[in-house]
């Protein structure tokens, strides 16, 4: 797991109960804005998410993969998940992202607080990122 993602997982391990939800909402507030030259219409939708979520994977430099996410403010859980992936994986090498365990999100300790359907949304985001990276030479 890349160090940045391991740090996020550690941050979640350091808090308990409802504080985990507060931390997730803090991440939601920190989701980076899209760059001016990237429109949501050009991004890939992630229909497995409960709320509208779009992602874009720029692997033109496989040593520094760029990840971009768009989710509405009224979808804080989805935004939080996207922000976790952005904080932990944006700028990382392709091979390091591909090596992230598919179920890493279980280490966040949110299963008791978030519905399994919502957690599957985070899994779907990571799966789509990996699929895009595997299609990149």
TrEMBL record:
InterPro entries named among the record's database cross-references: Fe-S_metab-assoc_dom
Highest taxon listed in the record's lineage: Bacteria
Residue ranges constituting the Fe-S metabolism associated domain according to the UniProt record: 10-131
Gene3D superfamilies the record matches: 3.90.1010.10
Family, as annotated: Belongs to the SufE family.
Name of this protein: Cysteine desufuration protein SufE
